[in-house]
Amino acid sequence: MTDHLTTAPEGDTQAQYQTTAPVKAEVEDHSDIVKGVWPFPDERPAVSPIKGYRALTHEEVALINEMKNLGESLRGIIEGLHMQPQFDQRWVSIGETHLQQGLMALVRAIARPTTF
Description:
Elements: H1 31-34, H2 58-82, H3 89-111
């Protein structure tokens, strides 16, 4: 990864950092899934493999897997931020935790478990 950030003089913790190149994050288009266009017919499996979870449809499983894939994409961005000491690591960690919680909440919204 090429470092596009300007560096501050040694010991200068209040310096302003500016990027010299635009930061682009690749984000997949998930609008078809959110709108309800699913790749699988609405079929339920015979049993639920996880205690406290109802049987999920193929489209629910596909949507949950999309959430998991999105999480892996976000992990890569966060790992890159953790490798940049000029960023406030406390806030990087807080952002990481909030993103994990948000994705978990979306998965639970889809799966609707019956357990705590």
